[in-house]
Design a protein that fits this description.
Arc Repressor Mutant, subunit A; elongated; mainly alpha; Rna Polymerase Sigma Factor, Chain: A
């Protein structure tokens, strides 16, 4: 995510409680954090909220980061989760995570926790991606059927499905 060359020294000092290093780290990360938020937040109004929330998480929880080398991945996952959480808050269709879990009837999940995680990940997807995943993976429609139903090209269905699965993978592996 970040194009900035962050030194492990700066990250280490920020983790250790150095306020100036933390402020510098946040400043260096802002352009890339903003770009990532714009890419992953389903609602443009959520971008600023996501950035602020991630900055708060960064200030509060950076000291708990085990290794400086994990910083970028941790920041990516934190931003993705924040965008998904904010998107879920306004998605409208599902008021609770359990609603989507019951609605989609996951048939081969090994545990209720995994069911809830998958349901939360799907509910948090932007509507344009969520619809394709549900039609393909749960209603088992073909690419042509999905394209016809959504009045888009088959190639657009494939792109949306690929992007949705990437988002789900990021959410679930975090």
């Amino acid at each position: 995510m970040l194009s900035v060359d962050l030194t492990s020294d700066l990250i280490g000092r920020a983790r250790g409680g150095d306020a100036a290093a933390l402020a510098r780290l946040i400043d260096l990360c802002q352009p890339d954090v903003r770009r990532y938020a714009r890419r992953h937040c389903s609602n443009a109004a959520d971008v600023e909220d996501a950035i602020q929330e991630v900055n708060i998480v960064l200030m509060r929880h950076l000291s708990g980061l085990r290794a400086a080398g994990a910083f970028l991945g941790w920041l990516n996952v934190t931003m993705l989760r924040m965008c998904l959480r904010l998107g879920r808050r306004f998605s409208g269709r599902y008021s609770e995570i359990s609603d989507i879990a019951d609605d989609l009837r996951f048939s081969t999940t090994p545990s209720p926790e995994l069911r809830r995680d998958i349901a939360a990940a799907i509910a948090a997807l932007p509507p344009l991606y969520r619809e394709v995943v549900v039609l393909r993976d749960f209603k088992e429609l073909s690419m042509k059927e999905i394209a016809a139903r959504l009045a888009i090209e088959v190639s657009a269905v494939k792109v949306r499905l690929h992007r949705a699965r990437e988002m789900l993978r990021e959410y679930l592996t975090a």
